[in-house]
Amino acid sequence: MTVKFTKYQGLGNDFVLIDNRQHANPVLTPEQAQKVCDRHFGVGADGVIFVLPGQGDTDYTMRIYNSDSSEPEMCGNGIRCLARFIADLEGKDEAVHSYRIHTLAGVITPELLANGQVKVNMGQPRLLADQIPTTLNSPGEQVVQRPISVAEQNWLVTCVSMGNPHCITFVEDVASIPLEKLGPQFETHAAFPQRINTEFVEVVRPDYLKMRVWERGAGITMACGTGACAVLVAGVLTARCQSKATIELPGGPLEIAWAGGEEPVYMTGPAESVFAGDLTL
Q1: d(Cα 160, Cα 237) in Å, to the nearest integer?
Q2: What is the CATH number of the domain that holds 116?
Q3: pTM to 2 decimals?
Q4: Contacts for 201-206 with beta carbons within 8 Å, 24 or more apart?
């Protein structure tokens, strides 16, 4: 079997995109996607994203398999790449246009801007413990600055779901964090029954934060869009940052805004095509 693909990246978070519009289910198995993501024996990527037919009143459906073959609910950098891929498939020019995308985290609306950036309405953040999910607080309570012990060290964490779960901790020097050691221990901690994405954050200014991320199912990545959104929400909840800020990731900056309460979070950043080819499976 031969499957055409195009590789895209958003701030170094890279994905293999597959036109799956003729089928209701992904044309690759999770195990095949894992092989495709291998950086030595495959194409190399943080995940494989499939563009499927829309459901209900949506234009398209997004499915994604991580590099470890697991399936996350959503991916912020991935959905920007997906929007750019769809526009390329449709032959759209640089005019502003948007799509309604069905995901396992709900309907997400990316908008391609005239300047080449992609702005995404990421929906409302979910803040209650049972929505994350986590056992760090009672089910109907927020998880803000709650203590957790990881790697024989105590941390204060704030948890946010952007359709997928995030644990945010603020540190003095994010560059000094041993992410390869701490990331797996946070991800598989018993307090997170569905595992967790973990962000370590340094507040440089109220409108400028630096973060590093360990992604559930992918490990250390250059960027995480849902993670950047969760970081801004956590920063607002703990009075560390403004409602609009630049979140600097190893792969580059994202602009994140949240007006608070039940308002949606908005993410703006790039998505670029890298190369195209054929998979022989």
Answers
A1: 10
A2: 3.10.310.10
A3: 0.94
A4: 201/168, 201/169, 201/170, 201/171, 201/174, 201/231, 201/234, 201/235, 202/170, 202/171, 202/172, 202/173, 202/174, 202/175, 203/170, 203/235, 203/240, 203/241, 204/248, 206/240, 206/241, 206/242, 206/245
- The answer to whether 251 touches 11, Cβ cutoff 8 Å, is yes
Strands 252-258, 106-112: pairing kind? unpaired
114 Cβ neighbours under 8 A, 6+ residues apart: 94, 95, 96
Query: Based on the domain organization, do 276 and 247 belong to the same domain?
Result: no
CB-CB contact of 116 with 268 (8 Å) = no
Do 86 and 195 lie in a common domain?
no
Residue at token pair 């973990």 = 198
Amino acid type, 6: T
Closest CA to 267 of 231, 213, 216: 231
Domain count, the chain: 2
| pLDDT digit string, tens, across residues 146-195 | 999 999 999 999 999 999 999 999 999 999 999 999 999 999 999 999 99
Domain limits at 38?
2-123+270-280
Computed over every residue of the chain, the mean pLDDT equals: 97
Locate 148 and state its tokens: 């957790």
Residues marked as catalytic: 75, 224
Residue 133: what residue type? P
